[in-house]
Design a protein that fits this description.
The chain is α+β, with helices and mostly antiparallel strands. The protein has a domain of 60 residues. Helix content is 20%, strand content 28%. The protein has three helices and seven strands, in the order H-E-H-H-E-E-E-E-E-E. The strands form two sheets. A four-stranded antiparallel beta sheet has the order 2-7-4-5, with no helix packed on it. The longest helix is centred in the N-terminal third of the chain and has 11 residues.
Length: 109
Amino acid sequence: MNSASSAACFNRLGKRQLEVLNMDKLIVEEFHHSANTSLYINCRNLHELIEERTDTIFSPHKLNFFCIQLYVHGAGTYTVDFNPIAIRAKHALVIAKNQMGAIYQTRRL
C-alpha cells in the first residue's frame, strides 16, 4: 500500500473514527523496502520510546507520520485527537498522520 492509498483509506474512515484491530485477525505481509525511497518502517519498544521522550510522549503531540502500535501485553489508555482509547494486550491501534496523540500516564503513589 503506497502513501496515497494509505491516506485515502484513512480519509474514508474519517478523522475521528479509529479502529482497534484484534491481532489474531491481522494479516502479515512482507515489506519490500527500496533504498531510493523515503518510506520506511521504524519498530520501537514502548519502554525505549518513553525513556527517550519522557518530556513529550505524555503530552498531546501531532504525529507527522502514520503509526501502527502493536500491544503484546499490558493495558492502558492512549489518546488520539483528545479521545481516550482503551489499550489492552493483543490489539493494534492505527493512527493517521497529522492526528494528535499522547500516552495517558497514571499516577504512581
